[in-house]
Write a sequence for this structure.
């Protein structure tokens, strides 16, 4: 379901009017988490869950898989947060971790299904088993129905704002291939989206 | 619709995509469980070790009455998980048998599909065994549910003209 007013964010927003104070609060939560304070880490989780989960959901196209990936992200972050030095924004670092874990998770799933290629199913048919979830917008549903590589590139470029050379490094493909996947995704989305709406 | 209108329609929808979506399930208990079990990775200092030893000595002194109650509570919780897993297994077996019965006369796309189903069944049984040893592990339960779905999807995928399996 879409997050409107998280109680945690609402609390911070009402207590602290400026973004810098919110960031200061986040820095305190990060420092406490680095000291292994699970209640502080839970607050960080509550603050960022909506963004992390939406990224996992759009990359995987499957809510059950997105839940698994989001859990894995926060478990990895709990271990890695001691090494977070604050050189970039926490959210930027967190979403990069999320992207890497989601891509790795999706690749593992692809390898698993590759064992059954003899059955004549390809990845494009297997993915997105719940693209019809009632919580997805029409565009999200169309994105979820894109072929895997086209969907990953489209989400990273158009939704998350990565450049094609960055996407190339993340997905281990050439920047030109990323552009080609994006063009294909965009054309398919125009066809699907404008037909459905 | 003109090309420009189509482009605008998609771009507008992109701009209006919600930045945050909440999962339907509460993910925190699984995370809390996992990070709680990772605590052994910490480097403990002498004060922590001394504190643990003290607590250990105290716990040992309380051992007799304490053990009896803990064992009784633990056995009850284990039994609840065991009953839940048995119910899930029974539901899955019934679903699988119904599918196999429905498709018994239909053409299959691959001859060796039984071997794949057997591999998934073996994985499922290994997960059930693991759950007996570690009944509160949410990942094992999640993997078990996924294995159920994969087994059913596999049976459907090898048969022609099949409907979609509803997820657990």
């Amino acid at each position: 379901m879409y997050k409107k007013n998280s109680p945690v964010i609402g609390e911070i927003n009402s207590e602290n009017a400026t973004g810098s104070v919110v960031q200061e609060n986040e820095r305190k939560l990060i420092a406490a988490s680095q000291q292994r304070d699970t209640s502080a880490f839970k607050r960080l989780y509550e603050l960022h869950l909506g963004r992390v989960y939406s990224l996992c959901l759009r990359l995987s196209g499957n809510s059950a898989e997105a839940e698994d990936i989001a859990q894995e992200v926060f478990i990895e972050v709990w271990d890695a947060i001691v090494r977070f030095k604050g050189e970039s924004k926490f959210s930027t670092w967190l979403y990069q971790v999320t992207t890497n874990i989601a891509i790795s998770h999706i690749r593992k799933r692809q390898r698993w299904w590759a064992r059954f290629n003899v059955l004549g199913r390809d990845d494009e048919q297997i993915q997105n088993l719940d693209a019809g979830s009632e919580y997805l917008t029409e565009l999200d549903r169309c994105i979820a129905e894109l072929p895997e590589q086209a969907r990953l590139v489209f989400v990273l470029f158009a939704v998350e704002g990565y450049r094609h050379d960055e996407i190339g490094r993340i997905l281990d493909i050439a920047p030109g291939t990323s552009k080609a996947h994006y063009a294909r995704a965009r054309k398919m989305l125009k066809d699907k989206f404008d037909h459905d709406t | 619709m003109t090309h420009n209108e189509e482009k605008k329609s998609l771009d507008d929808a992109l701009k209006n995509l919600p930045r945050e979506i909440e999962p339907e399930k509460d993910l925190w208990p699984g995370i809390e469980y996992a990070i709680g079990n990772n605590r052994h990775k910490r480097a403990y200092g002498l004060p922590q070790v001394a504190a643990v030893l003290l607590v250990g000595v105290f716990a040992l002194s309380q051992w007799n009455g304490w053990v009896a109650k803990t064992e009784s509570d633990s056995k009850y919780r284990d039994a609840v998980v065991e009953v839940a897993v048995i119910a899930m297994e029974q539901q899955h077996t019934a679903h699988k048998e119904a599918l196999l019965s429905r498709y018994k006369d239909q053409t299959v796309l691959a001859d060796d599909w039984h071997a794949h189903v057997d591999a998934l069944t073996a994985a499922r049984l290994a997960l059930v065994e693991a759950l007996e040893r570690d009944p509160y592990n949410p990942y094992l339960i999640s993997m078990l549910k996924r294995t159920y779905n994969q087994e059913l999807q596999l049976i459907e995928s090898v048969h022609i003209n099949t409907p979609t399996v509803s997820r657990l």
Remarks:
- The CA atoms of residues 116 and 154 of chain B lie 8 Å apart.
